[in-house]
Amino acid sequence: xxxxxxxxAGAKPPFEKILIANRGEIACRVMRTCRxxxxxxxxxxxxxxxxALHVREADEAVLIGPPPSAQSYLLADRIVxxxxxxxxxxxxxxxxFLSEKQEFQAALAKAGIVFIGPDAHAIHAMGDKIESKxxxxxxxxxxxxGHLAAIPDAEHAVQIAQGIGYPxxxxxxxxxxxxxxxxAFNDAxxxxxxxSASNEARTSFADDRVFIEKYVEEPRHIEIQVLxxxxxxxxxxxxxxxxxxxxxxxxxxxxxxPFLDAATxxxxxxxxxxxxxxxxxxxxxxxxxxVDKHRKFFFLEMNTRLQVEHxxxxxxxxLDLVELMIRVAAGEKLPLKQADxxxxxxxxxxxxxxxxxxxxxxxxxxRLVHYRQPPAGPDVRVDTGVYEGGEISMYYxxxxxxxxxxxxxxxGAIDRMLRALDEFYxxxxxxxxxxxxALLAHPRFRAxxxxxNFIAEEFKGGFSAAHLPPRDPAVLAAIAAVAERxxxxxxxxxxxxxxxxxxxxxxxxxxxxxxxxxxxxxxVTALGESWSVAVPGRSIALxxxxxxxxxxxxxxxxxxxxxAQLDRLGVGWRISHGGGQAEALVLNPRQAELAALMPVKAxxxxxxxxxxxxxxxxVALEVHEGQEVKTGxxxxxxxxxxxxxxxxxxxxGTVAKIHAHAGESLKVDQKILEFS
Length: 676
What we know:
By secondary structure, the chain is an alpha+beta fold. Helices cover 27% and strands 33% of the residues.
């Protein structure tokens, strides 16, 4: 955790009680700082969040409405009423929800409640993406060419895009978090993108205005953290590289950027400060830039709130941004000047989401049957709002946690992140941990050769098991063989203790491990407290205290500490380690001979059906029975986790039957329509 700013011993806290107008990990994160400062906290929650972690961790909690955000977390009057009910003096909005709504800040001010953030003027000036670009240009900040007025309909959008020149970015004026954004390379994509962006903007922000600007190719997304107070002081706290994105939503972030030089960092920081001063900005804020391959940068937007990825800045500056926001809101001066800002080492953040990367990253909902975080320490930080047994709800963002690591070098921070991901065990919902590991292990990422197109370019056609080749298959085979030996001896002896760990009885055993359908002969030998596993061309030394049922196989392998996730798959195993994954079946030599002769069972043919890839709401059907469709044509629109997803035809055909209708709630793999 970032260090506290200096304050006199026994000093009165800036506020006695703060209400956090948010949920999930950010609410819990704000509460940690409040607790350290001696400030009591109030949580607000919807009916769906009655058992949420942020409710459990707060000193008080107030129910504010039904599960949908529009009926609970987005209702400013409910938040104000909760403050009055509990006596909260101030409100921290976190990010999202009401954090950038000037009406909310104004309502709190009218009630005499302090808003921990900028004033309504700054929120209005910077929160509207169209007006903020005009103001940035006036302040001398570099901006992207575009049409900075709201666009009434799709045909006008096409005309504007043709004038700017494709490709263009269609963006919600009130947008953020990747919602209400589409890239268009031609007229057809522009029309469709306008409709989708407008719909997402209306659903997420109650504001369907969109604008269009030139899309910078080979772009990097780099943002500057700024901090201001009510006394005219504004500083910048370095940058964050946020180029690893999927559908315009950040996946990995790091500080500093591996791309910027000192001169560019200073120029970007000074422009960010100039923009903040232009609106008399106070509190924490972020100025986002698009940077091209020549380090030429353009203003993207300013977020007038705490960013999701703020922990990486805290880790390299050793500052607590939440504490500084609270103190600024209480009228205190910033405790440091620009010359005092120092960057120490490298930090990474990986967003762990409940989504299925093998099914186009579709949201996953349900209960966290098993949840085990990596151990926290100076080099590992976990910000979460969930716990084992808790629910991932269909009503909100599917984030499970933010996993952060810190080291003196970028390479060290990456390696520490890979180890931490190996230690992060989640079951009950699908998650993206394997995908995150694959990103971090990718040679291009390790080289720092990043753009916002990285995922689209390196994972064309989506993410699959083919992207998870084990870096050392022999090690995974050795783990499977030793685990099988321990498991079988425990079953034979009926003893769960370490003495039955497979060392008694047979000393040497020849086995064949079928690793991802490839047979590998091994000889497993028990050597007291250790194991020797002979594979073709080498011998692997392994020492472990693993016991059956433990989800993490922790071992010293050839003098190196290794943690692998181990799941039973029928009579086999699934092993995940270091960005690689394998399915393993341990057989004796005769079983292996017979297994090689077994026919492969073909999966059922579902190619004539359009199946729902996720649980969600069927917003619209774009076709009717009897209609002929072409490859790539839109068939249906599904809304899940506040995002609209377009399902397209994968081949030419004719719609024979409609199985589901607009307005219907869909389950995973539910039939939507059938082709003849």
